[in-house]
TrEMBL record:
Any one Pfam family match given in the protein's UniProt record, by short name: Pyr_redox_2
GO molecular function terms noted in the UniProt entry: NADH dehydrogenase (quinone) (non-electrogenic) activity
Entry keyword set: FAD, Flavoprotein, NAD, Oxidoreductase
Main enzyme class: oxidoreductase
Catalytic activity: a quinone + NADH + H(+) = a quinol + NAD(+)
Protein name from the UniProt record: NADH:ubiquinone reductase (non-electrogenic)
Length: 167
């Protein structure tokens, strides 16, 4: 199921519950294809939230949960980070996206750049190359500044955020 986002403590708690439940359901699942879908986690959006989320899920699977199951090996979980743009952390200085990419790859995250998700369903996500079967999809993309800077005709930065004084 595609989550609505990550804006509150309740949202974070819901994401944690969904991730842990996917492992629990995979533990009792006998169908290999269903088990693989349960152990595939898709994070959509390569900004700060998506990068952090993909890394956290991979770390939980490979470290915290690695010995907690009898029938599955959580370290085999597949974590995909899908970003429509050409690089992760596009609003950061050029060194940071490369650092983040290297760190995520060391954690086992599969990073797909320049690939937009066109549809989310209970069965997975649709990208240009086809469907990626997944049960847990976390939407961390599409965050944009309020159009208030335009309404107010205020000075804004390159991300359309209103520039304010530090007072």
């Amino acid at each position: 199921m595609c989550t609505a986002g990550l804006k509150s403590i309740n949202d974070a708690t819901d994401v944690r519950r969904r991730v842990l439940m996917a492992f629990e359901r995979a533990e009792i699942e006998t169908d290999r294809k269903v088990r693989e879908r349960l152990l595939t986690f898709v994070v959509v959006g390569g900004g700060p939230t998506g990068v952090e989320m993909a890394g956290a899920i991979s770390e939980v699977a490979r470290k915290a949960l690695s010995k907690g199951f009898r029938r599955i090996d959580p370290r085999t979980a597949r974590v995909l980070l899908i970003e429509a743009g050409p690089r992760l952390l596009s609003s950061f200085t050029p060194a940071m996206p490369e650092y983040a990419r290297n760190a995520l790859e060391k954690l086992g995250v599969d990073i797909r750049l320049g690939d937009a998700v066109t549809q989310c369903s209970a069965d997975g996500v649709q990208v240009k190359d086809g469907n990626i079967p997944a049960t847990t999809i976390i939407w961390a993309a599409g965050v944009a500044a309020s159009p208030a800077a335009n309404w107010l005709q205020a000075h804004k930065d390159r991300n359309d955020r209103v520039i304010v004084d530090r007072k």
